[in-house]
Amino acid sequence: MKTGAMRAEKPESGTYDWVEIERSLDARGYAVLPRVLRPGQCAQLAALYARDNGFRSRIVMARHNFGRGEYKYFAYPLPSLLQRLRHALYPYLAPVANRWNEQLGIDTQYPADLDAFLDQCHRAGQTRPTPLILEYGPGDYNCLHQDLYGEHVFPLQVAMLLSRPGIDFEGGEFVMTQSASNGQRAEVIPLEQGDAVLFTVNQRPAANRRGGTRRVAMRHGVSAVRSGKRHTVGLIFHDSR
């Protein structure tokens, strides 16, 4: 599916301007999609965290120096809502990923269809699903990081906020940093319940002063939660070993 002067149907309702989304990704390395999920859908997904079934593993961040808090990787089959979202968003992001790779001089090109890309992952031994749900309590945070899981890495991913800022929790802002030859920058990205942020997993291209292309390294994390409980779903498009 090609990007261009079009408006795409939201995964759940309404429309998004994918031309503007692409501009935001190019300029800042991220774009916000408001109200991807309805409040009831957010509550249903957040409630899954307390269950034992439906997940392949649980990670306590402090044990791995990832920060504080925990998260669980979903097992296949994914919850139907996340399955739909993963397949609905990928076709709009693949052309951006392919163009970025061309600009960065990277030979990899991604199929237009998510199933074809996952088949590449699986043939390379990357068979474990990567969508996850995160839970943060008071004092919890996520260190700045990049989500790189194997040979086949899709350069964009999605985080969706399930909790209500200012009601369910305080603090816990989504943070992105970028590092390039001209310096470093950090940005706090405000999200409301049900909003999704599309963002760069590793690096993105940017124009340099000579008219060429430079690499901008991106990292993301979550600031400390001051009170309450914060749940987020992460949609990563490549599977892992």
Automatic annotation (TrEMBL):
Q: Where is the Fe2OG dioxygenase domain?
A: 127-240
Entries under InterPro entries matching the protein:
DUF2086, Oxoglu/Fe-dep_dioxygenase_dom
**Does this UniProt record's set of keywords contain Oxidoreductase?**
yes
Which Gene3D superfamilies is this protein grouped with?
A: q2cbj1_9rhob like domain (2.60.120.620)
Q: Which superkingdom is the protein from?
A: Bacteria
**Keywords for this protein:** Iron, Metal-binding, Oxidoreductase
Question: Which family would the database say this protein is a member of?
Answer: Belongs to the iron/ascorbate-dependent oxidoreductase family.
- The name of this protein is Fe2OG dioxygenase domain-containing protein
Q: Which organism is it from?
A: Paraburkholderia silvatlantica
